[in-house]
Design a protein that fits this description.
alpha+beta; two-stranded antiparallel sheet
Length: 636
């Protein structure tokens, strides 16, 4: 209700004024950190100002702005003897941010004057809404969607102003981060901000002439701008890994990227928010379609809305996969932060963290074990002094690869019923003794599951050369899963959107689990499920099919204007690929050529196929990723 929103606005204004007047800090770094968090709360104010506004709230807002100006800039010259050079660098880096934050507040005050009457009118509109063309939707429902998109814009702006600009503008900070890590962390962020700004502008235009703007035409236009979001989504796992690498490499970067204590405002959380755009848009459009009788409404605008829904649904699988992969990567990165002395990269494609626990290992008590789906890591627990603090870490002792390992559940001593013996298949054997038989049983179960996966020779997430030299792929030129999928898809080659429409996620997961457990059949008659399993297998290859080593060479072909010269150049580049990569690429491209020859019925042109497969067969953490589809289309 408007009353509740206005009350929230007044309470927020009071809290701001009280903070600005009473806040005193013994440490300048804490003061700047909290003021930064304070300015970022303009996102909450924007939500309130876009929905309801009162004179009292407006007066508090103006007072807060004046107090902020005096509070922030009056303390810029304060010297704190307890702070180091790092502090002064942070202050310098964020001075521009504070200036921009204050400017944002001034703009918001100005905007609120213009919006006061129209904002209150929003709340007075009929809750059932009006018709927009042929489509019924409550204006309040649409306003909620607009506010959601503004909130996303604010989050992207925070990434740019709070994190990217200090890196660009402060040499002392910029020199502490590798170019490739910076490019991966902030991949497409500025373009994303520009695109989201255009989206919000279009939504405001629609709201200003409500209900004259047809929603189908609006979303048909907006979905045309999704490419940058899709590219951002594909890079999201790289961004997480690079962010973790940067934090570990420099104390200054760690302090900068951890500026906000609130989880919703730290950099990793902000980077995850654009991933929700496609699912949120799809949910919003589907709610409209469901309410507006889909069987009877065949207006042009409604068909455009269904077209937008279809395009969003086609990309939802990619987003779901990336969100799940990010969850796994985040878990791996968190575990790595708790282990000191482990120099390798723990967050790798295909790896999953399974469990941890205490055990006596080879007679060494109080050890901590970390089990992954391919690795067992032994660590030493911190001492009592360390354990009492917040910075407790485990010290790396050794790792045991499980790919060729075996396990013996009975120890050499018949009285030792709580021990297991694990051999890595080479020269290393360890004996783990647990406190109880129940603990032993749980560890035996999980380790046995890992070993059984390797026994059946998993096919997903396995390096191509390892897979092709395994017993199950003996005497084959391409993996059996690729051969089976392509053979089945050829019989359904005229299916519309054969590679763009998503199949059942549950069915795809069941087939994946079957193959990873030794199965060799694709038990589905749905061509979209079969194409989904093929795309998933290619996407989960630990290394790109066209290799990272030749990435730059393949991209350089984009600068060749003569098509014949470009094709000859690419042919020579393909011949440099490893044997198994050449075989598989030839097999895949030949099939895609066949698919594109049926584009009149399946709508999969070479350009469309390049969009689907390009980023999955040719990739590298690089800002040149825009050119991938161009290369793939030329090859097809």
């Amino acid at each position: 209700s408007s009353a509740a929103l206005i009350e929230d606005g007044n309470a927020l204004g009071d809290a701001f004024v009280k903070f600005a007047r009473e806040k005193e800090s013994d440490h300048l770094s804490n003061y700047y950190k909290e003021i930064g968090e304070f300015l970022q709360r303009t996102e909450e104010l924007r939500v309130i100002l876009n929905v309801a506004f009162s004179t009292k709230c407006y007066e508090r807002f103006n007072t807060m702005l004046d107090e902020i100006k005096r509070g922030v800039f009056a303390n810029q010259d304060v010297q704190d003897s307890q702070e180091s050079l790092i502090l002064s660098e942070i202050v310098d880096s964020y001075s521009n941010f504070f200036s921009e934050g204050v400017q944002n507040l001034e703009n918001l005050v100005s905007l609120s004057k213009q919006k006061r009457e129209s904002s209150i009118k929003i709340l007075e509109d009929n809750a059932e809404g009006k018709k927009s063309g042929e489509i019924k939707i409550s204006r309040i429902h649409f306003c909620s969607f607009v506010v959601e998109q503004e909130s996303l814009l604010q989050s992207i702006q925070q990434i740019v102003n709070q994190y990217l600009k200090p890196l660009q503008q402060t040499e002392k900070i910029a020199m502490r981060i590798l170019d490739e890590d910076r490019d991966a962390i902030f991949f497409k962020v500025e373009e994303l901000y520009s695109t989201q700004s255009k989206i919000v502008d279009e939504l405001h235009k629609c709201l200003s002439i409500w209900p004259a703007q047809p929603l189908g035409a609006l979303f048909d236009k907006l979905t045309g701008w999704l490419d940058v979001f899709i590219q951002f989504v594909r890079n999201s796992s790289n961004a997480l890994v690079s962010l973790s690498t940067a934090k570990r490499s420099s104390k200054l970067l760690r302090r900068m990227f951890n500026l906000h204590s609130e989880e919703s405002k730290d950099l990793s959380s902000l980077l995850s928010k654009p991933l929700k755009l496609i699912p949120n848009w799809l949910n919003f459009i589907e709610s409209i379609i469901e309410k507006d009788n889909t069987e009877e409404n065949n207006s042009e605008d409604f068909l455009l809305l269904k077209k937008a829904s279809k395009l969003l649904a086609e990309n939802k699988e990619l987003v779901s996969d990336c969100i799940e992969q990010n969850r796994i990567m985040s878990e791996l990165l968190t575990v790595h932060q708790r282990i000191t002395g482990y120099k390798e990269v723990l967050a790798q494609p295909g790896r999953r963290f399974l469990r941890e626990g205490s055990a006596t290992v080879d007679g060494r008590p109080d050890q901590q074990l970390f089990l992954f789906n391919d690795l067992l890591i032994e660590t030493k627990k911190p001492g009592l002094v360390q354990r009492a603090g917040n910075s407790a870490r485990f010290t790396f002792v050794r790792k045991l690869a499980l790919r060729k390992a075996s396990m013996q559940t009975e120890g050499d001593d018949p009285n030792d019923i709580n021990s297991i013996k694990i051999c890595d298949g080479a020269s290393t054997t360890i004996v783990c003794t647990f406190a109880t038989n129940n603990e032993k049983a749980v560890w035996c179960r999980d380790i046995s599951h890992v070993l059984s996966e390797f026994y059946h020779e998993r096919v997903f997430g396995i390096p191509l050369d390892e897979l092709m030299t395994s017993e199950r792929e003996k005497d084959r030129d391409v993996p059996i899963i690729v051969e089976k999928a392509i053979t089945q898809l050829i019989s359904d080659i005229d299916t519309e959107g054969i590679f763009r429409i998503s199949g059942s996620r549950r069915d795809i997961d069941l087939i994946k689990e079957s193959f990873d457990s030794g199965g060799t059949d694709i038990e589905s008659n749905d061509p979209h499920v079969v194409s989904g399993i093929l795309k998933l297998w290619i996407r989960q290859l630990p290394s790109p099919l066209m290799t990272e080593e030749l990435f730059s060479e393949f991209l350089s072909s984009c600068s060749i204007n003569c098509n014949e010269e470009k094709i000859n150049f690419l042919k020579n580049s393909v011949q440099k690929l490893p044997k198994w990569n050449q075989y598989l690429l030839q097999h895949l491209i030949s099939f895609l050529v066949l698919v594109s020859s049926h584009s009149k019925t399946n709508l999969m042109t070479s350009a469309n196929l390049a969009i689907v497969f390009g980023p999955n067969i040719l990739w590298k953490r690089s800002k040149e990723a825009d050119l991938l589809a161009n290369v793939t289309e030329t090859i097809v």
